[in-house]
Structure formats: structure tokens, C-alpha cells
Amino acid sequence: MFKIRLLVTALTLAGSISVASAWETLPTEAPAPADNATTAAKVELGQMLYHDPRLSSTGTVSCASCHNTMLGGEDNRPNSMGVNGQTGGRSAPTVWNSAFNTVQFWDGRAASLEAQAAGPVTNPIEMGMKSWDDVVSRLKSIEGYHAPFEQAFGKDAISKDNATKAIAAYERTLITPNSPYDRYVSGDKSALSAQQVRGMEKVAELGCTHCHSGPAFNGPGMFQKFPVIPDGYWEAQHHFKKDKGLAEVSKNPADEHLWKVPTLRNIALTAPYFHNGSVKTLDQAVTLMAKLQLGKNLSKDEVADIVAFLNGLTGEFPKQKIPVLPGTPGSSLN
Amino acid sequence: MFKIRLLVTALTLAGSISVASAWETLPTEAPAPADNATTAAKVELGQMLYHDPRLSSTGTVSCASCHNTMLGGEDNRPNSMGVNGQTGGRSAPTVWNSAFNTVQFWDGRAASLEAQAAGPVTNPIEMGMKSWDDVVSRLKSIEGYHAPFEQAFGKDAISKDNATKAIAAYERTLITPNSPYDRYVSGDKSALSAQQVRGMEKVAELGCTHCHSGPAFNGPGMFQKFPVIPDGYWEAQHHFKKDKGLAEVSKNPADEHLWKVPTLRNIALTAPYFHNGSVKTLDQAVTLMAKLQLGKNLSKDEVADIVAFLNGLTGEFPKQKIPVLPGTPGSSLN
């Protein structure tokens, strides 16, 4: 068994020494809310809805288009491309292990996966549906959705509430366990290389795990400020402060530049980085995080060690069947 | 065993009586060309490439985006949406059973699935890659593609030729057998309703199967003229003749309005209809085909019977795994 190792973080906001984190493996099941127990029928329906482009106005964009379940759970683009080629200002977060986020979206404005799932569908630059009433009408018009909804939720169950519950139930199964890091922490000391172990120790020593803590490295706290340390040069390069984060929603100046702490799981697969996707490589992302959050200038070797460790956070992707979506028999979408 | 029933078509171009078709079940395997034998390694690689949006300039459009393997093999749109929201003038043909087409694309300009697969990738309004050299460079930069290409084709095998061969090998597995029609023809007389059998007989009697013949109902001949019978009213509605078909490629006036005979398999799932996707329902498609190709005005009941039969051509979709695509570790696509 793994002997829990408590980390003494080198840096806390108060400057004091505190016990901040332990190395934890990723759970293989995600907790579900009381009103949406995870069932096989909901997961199956949710997988269909998640991959169905008919949840967008043009019939071209599904949840999976930007949060790709065949890749790192996003699209490797700075900003995603929604209906009619439109792009926004933020980079798609990964869907893998999103069940372990306390809040959802970069600005944390959704308190649950259910609430998150409702958003992009009617966002004009994402999936572009005029209203959830339109989504429900379209789903009702697809005969083959009637039975899966009934199996998951009972009779006459096609609704916004149930569609988002099914999508969330499916997302709770999108967990990537057994990364080299997890195997190392579980006792297989050969699972990480010497360089990766150096990177792991450096991550703790620097204080990265003060915020990126817990099994998904996404923190005990919901929000953190980014960037913490003003830097004119890097701001001019990347415009990190152009987007005010949580304050864009709350309109509260105290929330300016507050962001959800993103998971580090599978981070090697989710370039480009940061809320606006402006940083192309993981090396540069590590360098900038140390500089702008912790005030540290890392050496090339230190960056290489940390990146090697972060590559050890790539987990095993569950084998899934390609869903067979019910057809729209005999009639056109548009 | 099924007793082969030969059809006497009521209408041929010569006006004479000829033996034009037999009711045939769909083969469960497709023949492969001599230089591209179907192997498990090629099919697996081809499935990955087929679903990989990184074969497009924006990283948002894969083969599957317009030829959706979760649905009827296309996108239920009049015209597909390529990179940056662009649309063209033709409707995406289904990928299911495309292995049984003698030629590919609406205008039949590709003689094989291999040749077809090369086209959309570098079409500026479809997948938008500048050149196949760029595609090959990108594939080479994705470390996780090296082993699958080697397994399928040997060492240092990432090339346009092998990528399109793999995609074609995968497409040859996209066959939908065991439709109600196939079961009926194989001896299960309960597989089609009385109405569907009436529709089946009507299809033969009218002469639809003169062109839509063979196991995939896509003809022994490669091309047919559409529309055959001039009709000002319907031309004004649907602009069928705006696109000159094969002549757009060959520049030969004799090829004007010649089109590949499309399969009727899974036709109930592939609305809207015709080369320009301008006809929204299967009822209307049947009505117009009778009128514009055969000079017949069908009654409502006849249309309903034929549509019922066409619904019996929806096959069983093979169970496939969602491919796990190799990541683009630590770097951004754009």
C-alpha cells in the first residue's frame, strides 16, 4: 500500500508553512448528486446526446466536437470553433475527469456538470440553438430518442432537465485512471522515471500543489487569481488580463482574474494552455506558471523535469462503443 | 434458401422488356483492390484517421464530421459544413456501403475509395489542408501515429498513399446487412409488412430498379442522367440543373447532368435528398424521381407504399469502438 506522504508547501499566500497536499490516486468512480444517481440507462443516453450534432443549430457541432472523447477531451485549439465557424475567447477545458471539478467552466459559473451541460447548447457562438424548447422539440421529433429517455427517466421524459442529467451522468464515467503517476503512488516505483520523480518533487517544493492539489490536481479551493504577479512583458505577449474571469459573470471587481483551478490530469494532451489558449507548449506553460504565480525563474532542467512529471499524469482512456444515434427518418435537419 | 426472383422491368430506355434485376441481399464483405488487401491493422489505422479532425486545417473537421458513422453515414444537411463554416453545393453521400459503389463522389470522378479519400482533405471548403505534404508532416509530428502506420504498412510508412489506403480499408468494413428487406429476401416473409411488399413490387413495376439495381440498389451502370424529363416548375423549385454533374469535371457537354446512381440502402436516414440536398423528405424524393425520371405521377398511396419499402432498407450498423486517437503531446495544433 501507498504510504501517504504529506507535503510541506514551500510557498503559501500567507508565507507560513502549512500542510497542503498528499499524493493521491484518481478515484475510479465519481460521486453523483442526490437527484441524479448514475445509472447505465442514463449513461447510455448521455453518451448519445453528448455525441449528437443535432443538438446544434447547424447539425454540425456536438459536445464532443470541442470536448473530443477520442483525444484529450478537448480540441487542441486556442479557442474552439462553434456553429458557422465562429470562435470565442476561451480554450475548451478537458471533459476527462471533469466530474472531479468542484465548479465548471473556466470562470466556474456552473456549480455542477448538469448546469454546465445546459450552457453551450444555446450559446450563439457555440452550438447556437435558439432555446432549450427548440432542443426539446427536435429531440422529440427523433422517434428513436423516445425509448432511451423512457428507459432512463420514465414516460414522457424528454426535457432540458433530463437531457442535461443524462449528459452529466455520462461525463461522470469519463475518468482516466492508472496513469504512470497513479501506479507510482500505488507502489510501483518503476512507473515513473528518475527525471519524473525529480519533477514531482519540484512541483511540491515550488508550491504548485498548493493550488493544484488532490487526486485531480485541481485544488481544494474553487478559484485562484491568475496572474498573481504583474508582468508587463508577458501580458503584452499573451493578454492574460483582457478576460476578467469570474468578474465577467459576477460583475464584482473583487472577482477580477479569478479562475477555476484546472486539473493537471492529461495536461500533456491538452495544448494550447491557459484560459485563452495563448501558450502553445507545456514547457512554456510551466515556465510562465512559475514566473507569474510563484515569482520563480525556473532553469531549463527544472522545466524539463516538471514537464516529464506532467507527462506521467496521462491516464488510461476507457474503451467505449461508438454510439449509434437514432436517425431523423425521412426528413432534413434544416 | 431464397429463390431468386427475376424482375421484368416495366420500363427501359429502349421501351422493350428486359431482365434488369434480381432481389439480392447485401454482401457482408466488400471486395478490396489487389494493391490494398483489407487487414485488421489497416482498418484500425483507417478508423483513427477517418475520425481525426487534425486532418483538417482548423482541427475541427474529420471525415466523420460530414460522413457520420454514428448516424446514416452523412450529416442530414443539404450541404455539408467544412472548415470555418464554409458550405459547398452538394449533399454528402453516405459512407455506409460506399464500398459497393463502382465510382465515388456524386459526379463519380473518383474510381476508388482510395482516390476519394484523398479529395476532401485538401479541398479548401471541406477540410482545407494546403497540401498532402502538410497532412503527412502533421501525421509524422504525432508520435502515436508512427506505430499504427508501421503495423499496417511497414517502416517509415506515413504517406498520402498509405493514409488513403487505410481510410479506404476501414470504409470497406462499413456495411449494414440484415435490413428487413434482406431478411425478407432471405426467406423471412414476416420481415416486411404487406405495405412494404406492395412498395417493393411497385418499385420494380415502375422501373426504379432499372437504375437502382443490385444488392446496394446503386446500379450496374455507373452514371445516369438526372433529370431525364424537363420540368420547368420543379426546376424553378430545386435548381437541379444548375450543377452539371460529371460535365463539371470532364468539360464534355455529353456528360451534362450525368450522376452516379446513389445507393438506396439506409435512404430513410439520409435526408435531405438529391445531389444538391434540396428535397427535404423521402415522400417528395420518391414523387419527384417518378415524375422526372419515369414520367409517372404517383398517387399518395403509391408514394406511401414505396417509402414504407425504402424504410425496410435500413440495415444493422456494426458495433464499433470509439478510437483513441494519439495525442499531440505538449504542443498546440495552431
Textual characterization of the structure:
Chain A has 334 residues and is mainly alpha-helical. Chain A has two domains: 6-28 and 177-311, Cytochrome c-like domain (Cytochrome Bc1 Complex, Chain D, domain 2), CATH 1.10.760.10; 40-171, Cytochrome c-like domain (Cytochrome Bc1 Complex, Chain D, domain 2, Orthogonal Bundle), CATH 1.10.760. In chain A, 34% of the residues lie in helices and 4% in strands. Chain A has a two-stranded antiparallel ribbon with strand order 1-2. The longest helix of chain A is centred in the middle third of the chain and has 13 residues, at 194-206. The first copy, chain A, is globular. Residues 1-21 of chain A have low confidence and may be disordered.
Short description:
Two copies of one chain form a homodimer. Chain A is 34% helix and 4% strand. The first copy, chain A, has 334 residues and is mainly alpha-helical.
**Quaternary state, please?**
homodimer
Which percent range fits the helix content of chain A? Answer: 25-40%
In CATH, the homologous superfamily of the largest domain in chain A goes by the name Cytochrome c-like domain
Major β-sheet of chain A, in short? 2 strands, antiparallel
Instruction: Name the chain pair whose interface involves the most residues.
Output: A-B, 50 and 50 residues
Number of domains of chain A: 2
Distance between the termini of chain A: 58 Å
From the alpha carbons, calculate the radius of gyration of chain A and give it in angstroms: 21 Å
Within the largest sheet of chain A, what's the order of strands? Answer: 1-2
Shape of chain A: globular
Which class of secondary structure composition applies to the elements of chain A? Answer: mainly alpha
